[in-house]
Amino acid sequence: MSGKPSLARKSDRRISRTRRQLRDALFALILEKGFDAVTIEEITNRADLGRTTFYLHYRDKEDLLMESISELADDLVEQMARLPLDTWEFDNNATHPAPSPAIVLPFRHVANHAQLYRIILRGEGSYTISRRLREIIVQTCDAMLHVLISQDQLAALKPQVPLEVFLHYLAGSWLGLITWWLENDMPYSEMEMALMFQKLIRLGAAEVLGVVAER
């Protein structure tokens, strides 16, 4: 049996390469001149591809940006879902407390995909794109909460506000924090940011959620 890759695999790789070229071209142009000013012709010229090739893959530039955001979201949510619920225990007496992997992971994800996050957080694109980002962050915050608080604790909670309200509050806080972090060229590491955010969650929101946090 031949060890050569199949035609299907070659085709898949070619498609992936083409989409990556278009995506990278779009990102570079957005950072240079803003989403609204970018044209399909500029994207294809920068990617060294034809307009016909672009339309084989995407309807328009918003479709290209939305797919990039969706892939980003799916990757983050999938990584969060793989975290065991018992990966972290809060040790308030530790000399060097470690942040939860559930909080480190999103900050690391932002650091690894800083260019796309910067584009999204600048408000580029349509309201649909902004709404998708909010959905991503709410999903991520929900995953964080399920790692930080055990299933038994969640079942026993008597919060002063609906959990849905708290999750959107948490999402807004995280969004504001990563926006500041990126705008200032990430002056703290993802571990430092995660630990600070963890402290804000544990000590700032515990009373509202009805959780007694050790101090």
What is the strand and helix layout of this fold?
Blueprint: H1 7-33, H2 40-47, H3 51-57, H4 61-81, H5 101-112, H6 114-121, H7 127-148, H8 151-156, H9 163-183, H10 190-204, H11 206-209
List keywords for this structure.
215 residues, mainly alpha, Arc Repressor Mutant, subunit A, elongated
3D architecture notes:
- The structure is a single chain.
- With 215 residues, the chain is mainly alpha-helical.
- It folds into two domains: 1-58, Arc Repressor Mutant, subunit A (Orthogonal Bundle); 65-209.
- 70% of the residues lie in helices and 0% in strands.
- The longest helix is centred in the N-terminal third of the chain and has 27 residues, at 7-33.
- It is elongated and about 60 Å long.
Report the portion of residues in β strands: under 5%
Largest sheet: none
Q: What's the mean pLDDT score?
A: 80
**Whole-number total of structural domains:** 2
The helix-and-strand class reads mainly alpha
Low-pLDDT runs of 5+ residues are none
Q: What's the Cα radius of gyration?
A: 21 Å
Helix share of residues? over 70%
The beta-strand count equals 0
